[in-house]
């Protein structure tokens, strides 16, 4: 009997062209708190949980950040990101890939380190209804990436074994989480990480974007 894999997708930079909007939103939030951090350093942390983001921020700036300040940063980031909602677009081939999987009867879900307050913008751009499609956000798990909780929860929502699931993501944090839960990691370059970085973090295959993945879907067991 052939085992049908489930596809577990990251959201930002994987299905939606939103990584740099997140970077700018974080830059806006940090500037408002008088915290000077270069944009490229912010980009390198997109995809990990907000808690780890602030922990690494502490190490790089040497600042002591209170719980209240962390919450202000989170809210300021979410507000700045929502203001860019009209600029958020699906990545090339994202909608077509999801439609193809649905038509082929291949289960899929979305697992994002973002909270629903920002993920809702991305889901709307994709035309994905979280009441009809399994969507797991940071609000629903104890730990986010690079911990595997998001992908484990997504596989559970699909009633799919995590060991036969395929994690598709754009960051090293996605690939590390995939390795930790024994799923197969597939990387896309549409979030700004390089192919070697993704492979070193555990990616089995690397594609340009969702359109490229769809063209070569048979390489990762996507068959009707």
Automatic annotation (TrEMBL):
One of its GO terms (cellular component) is cytosol. GO terms for molecular function: phosphoglycolate phosphatase activity. SUPFAM superfamilies: HAD-like. GO terms for biological process: DNA repair. InterPro entries: HAD-like_hydrolase_sf, HAD-like_sf, HAD-SF_hydro_IA, HAD_sf, PGP-like_dom2. Pfam families: Hydrolase (PF00702). This is Haloacid dehalogenase superfamily, subfamily IA, variant 3 with third motif having DD or ED/haloacid dehalogenase superfamily, subfamily IA, variant 1 with third motif having Dx(3-4)D or Dx(3-4)E.
């Amino acid at each position: 009997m052939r085992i049908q894999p489930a596809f577990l997708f990251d959201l930002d930079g994987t299905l939606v062209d939103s990584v740099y909007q997140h970077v700018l939103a974080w830059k806006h939030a940090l500037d408002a708190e008088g915290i000077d951090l270069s944009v490229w350093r912010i980009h390198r942390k997109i995809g990990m949980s907000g808690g780890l983001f602030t922990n690494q921020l502490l190490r790089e700036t040497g600042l002591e950040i209170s719980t209240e300040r962390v919450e202000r940063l989170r809210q300021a980031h979410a507000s700045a990101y929502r203001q860019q909602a009209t600029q958020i677009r699906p990545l090339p081939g994202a909608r077509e890939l999801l439609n193809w999987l649905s038509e082929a009867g291949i289960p899929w879900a979305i697992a994002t380190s973002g909270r629903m307050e920002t993920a809702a913008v991305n889901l709307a751009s994709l035309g994905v209804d979280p009441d009809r499609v399994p969507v797991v956000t940071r609000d629903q798990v104890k730990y986010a990436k690079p911990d595997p909780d998001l992908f484990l929860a997504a596989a559970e929502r699909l009633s799919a074994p995590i060991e036969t699931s395929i994690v598709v993501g754009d960051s090293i944090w996605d690939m590390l989480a995939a390795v930790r839960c024994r799923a197969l990691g597939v990387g896309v370059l549409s979030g700004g990480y390089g192919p070697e970085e993704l492979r070193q973090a555990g990616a089995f295959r690397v594609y340009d974007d969702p359109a490229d993945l769809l063209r070569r879907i048979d390489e990762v067991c996507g068959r009707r």
